[in-house]
Design brief:
There is one protein chain. This protein is an alpha+beta fold. It contains five helices and six strands, in the order ααβααβαββββ. The protein is elongated.
């Protein structure tokens, strides 16, 4: 790992700078090599928040599945649109164990992508969602949390400030998973 750090051009530049100006430098700052923002539509992550959303949106529990499916399709299309407009590949991965970053970097290298969208990788993975339960005793429909499999979309791009980056989101046919990665830059800014 040390050899990987030493071979990093940014590290080599830093060492050269520090060597040249060591008399003027009183200290250095070190940090992580990855910046991750994580966003959550917090009100939708909890039962009462989801119930409030459905009430304000005028969606009855009996119509929840159709509403969620329609919203999921809309979000899916909007998420794939930048890749399609740029003629970048959208590829389904049959195993969630596949390294998505390695796959995206390989696509970027093969296609010579140095800026903008690289690809969108999709995989079905576990997620938290909601479902409708028919309570036969009380003769009512109930909104309940449920673990299920969701389609996760991982958008890769070369961002001008963050370098090689990933934006991830996950959707199920029963509502977007409340938490998703917003941006994960795996290179230092250029």
């Amino acid at each position: 790992m040390l050899s990987a750090v030493l071979s990093n051009p940014l590290h080599t530049t830093s060492v050269a700078f520090l060597s040249k100006h060591e008399g003027d430098v009183i200290g250095t700052l070190s940090g992580f090599d990855q910046l991750v923002f994580r966003g959550t539509l917090r009100p939708l992550a909890y039962m009462n928040g989801m119930k409030s959303y459905l009430y304000l949106a005028g969606v009855l529990l009996k119509d929840f599945a159709g509403h969620a499916l329609k919203l999921t399709q809309h979000l899916n299309e909007a998420s794939l649109d930048p890749a399609r407009r740029s003629s970048r590949p959208v590829q389904y991965l049959p195993s969630s164990g596949t390294s998505k970053e390695e796959m995206a970097r390989k696509i970027a290298e093969t296609d010579g992508v140095k800026e903008g969208p690289v690809c969108v990788l999709t995989a079905v993975e576990p997620c938290n969602s909601f479902d409708i339960h028919r309570n036969r005793e009380a003769k009512i429909l109930e909104l309940v949390p449920r673990k299920r499999k969701c389609l996760h979309l991982y958008q890769y791009q070369f961002h001008p400030a963050f370098g090689f980056s990933e934006v991830g989101a996950s959707w199920s046919g029963h509502f977007p998973e409340p938490g998703c990665d917003a941006l994960s830059g795996t290179e230092r800014p250029r």
